[in-house]
């Protein structure tokens, strides 16, 4: 079973991801980590990015992530252009990881992917989980975690899909408006349901 795990920034997806990674027979693929891998210094992906955003990539094919973020978070058209470049590299790596993990006998593979739908990886998922939370709570968590300005937080939010989209397109919605104990309770309940499906 392949399960997508997604949601908006600051909602608590990382907490759910850690809980799932502790389950026997489960393996979590961190798609953010893969995104960093495919954009390592000198990569083919960086060479492709440079064709579209020369100001964000040096002659040595080193991606300036801060510059890239400033470009895409202030212009949705630029964000879509960047995504069109980077996602094929990410999805290829993810598919290779899935093949290896299946050969190792894992029962459940979790794709921890903030941009699961944008990358088209939702199409390979049997189930999709989304973590949601109140906008003000998410903003406060991001401010504490990343130390960025309110303006940058708002730009990040505006580049993402809204909660209504996730509610319409996901099989499980975990609401993180309360405390961490409540989020774990919801996660445990969902895991029990998933194991029932797996054991079928």
Task: Kindly provide the radius of gyration, computed on alpha-carbon positions and rounded to a whole number of angstroms.
Answer: 17 Å
Strand content: 5-15%
CATH fold field value = Rossmann fold
* CATH H level, superfamily name: P-loop containing nucleotide triphosphate hydrolases
Q: Termini, distance in Å? A: 12 Å
Mean pLDDT: 94
Could you write a compact summary of the structure shown?
The protein is built from nine helices and five strands.
Mind explaining what this structure looks like?
The protein has 200 residues and is of the alpha/beta class. The chain has one domain (2-199): P-loop containing nucleotide triphosphate hydrolases (Rossmann fold, 3-Layer(aba) Sandwich), CATH 3.40.50. The protein is built from 9 helices and 5 strands, in the order E-H-E-H-H-H-H-E-E-H-H-H-E-H. Helix 1 (13-21) packs across helix 9 (180-199). The longest helix has 28 residues, at 76-103. The chain is globular and about 55 Å long. 30% of the residues are buried.
Summarize this structure as a short list of keywords or feature phrases.
single chain; 200 residues; alpha/beta; Rossmann fold; five-stranded parallel β-sheet; 5 strands; globular
Secondary structure layout:
Elements: E1 2-7, H1 13-21, E2 26-30, H2 31-38, H3 44-52, H4 65-72, H5 76-103, E3 108-112, E4 127-132, H6 135-146, H7 150-158, H8 163-169, E5 172-175, H9 180-199
Helix pairs in contact: 1-9, 2-5, 3-5
